[in-house]
Every structure is written in structure tokens, then in C-alpha cells.
Amino acid sequence: MNFGLYIKDSFMGSLESVITMAKIVIPLMVFMEILKDSKILAKLSRKMEPVANFFDISNVAVFPLIIGLIFGLSYGAGVIIESTEENNLSKKDLYTLMIFLIACHAVIEDTLLFVVVGANLWFLLSVRVGVAIVISLFASRILKKAEINGYLIKG
């Protein structure tokens, strides 16, 4: 048993994973900056206002929610972190966003993986999204009360 070989293989595997993630996260962040600079992000936010109102979050929280929903937490994390830093999202918005994404992230990728092994597409998709919506609405209401009562301070 060559312990050094295991360490080398582990290091190389980890490095390959980081490089793969960077290949996805960096273009996503560049794409987000292009959308922001060309004012397309503002237009998308206005069109997504019903979603923001439904979850009682700000419009700027909708874009990271959509990115996380489509690409998942790993790949969407860069966009979520950048949005949080640049847009100064409230803690309520950030918590609601993360609660939704914890319950329902990478909808396309994960759902298709389960469908390949025999799961019912529509049942799985509706349960995942439904549970995420119910939990997020419940959390949003609780967080709003906490924010009003001063337990949830912005910053």
C-alpha cells in the first residue's frame, strides 16, 4: 500500500472537481455581470415581480433563486454570493431564498437523474416544487415577523 499514491490521487481528483466547477461558475458570474450592465437583469426582475411578491422577497432575490433552481447550489453559489454582496439582500430575502433552494435545487439535473432510474417525472417534480413552495412561504412569514420585531437585522 502506497499512502502517497492515495494522497496524490485524492488531490488530483479534488483539483479536477474545482476546475470543473470554476468552468461553470465563472461564466455564470460573467453572464450575470453582462445582464446587469446591459440592464437586462433589471427587466427580468420586473417580469419576475409576481414571484417576488408571492414569496414576499425583493426583486433582486429572484435572479439568484432562478439560477439556483436551474443549476443547483454548487454552481449557483457564486451567483448567490455575488448577489448577496452587491445587492445587499436582506437577511429575510437570503434566508427565504436558501430555504427554497435547500428544498428544491437543480430541478432539471436531479429530476432527470431520478427519472432515468425509474421515477415518475411529473410526480417527482410536483412534489419537489410543492414542498419547497410551502416551506418557503411558511419561512417567509416567520422571517417577516422576526424582521418586524427586530430579531432579524439587515447586514
Automatic annotation (TrEMBL):
Q: Which residues cross the membrane?
A: 12-32, 52-73, 94-115, 121-139
Q: Does the keyword Membrane apply?
A: yes
The residue ranges of the Nucleoside transporter/FeoB GTPase Gate domain are 18-108
Q: Which UniProt keywords apply?
A: Membrane, Transmembrane, Transmembrane helix
UniProt keyword annotation of Membrane present = yes
Q: Which InterPro entries match?
A: Gate_dom
* Protein name according to UniProt: Nucleoside recognition
Organism expressing this protein natively: Tissierella praeacuta DSM 18095
Q: Output the lineage of the source organism.
A: Bacteria, Bacillati, Bacillota, Tissierellia, Tissierellales
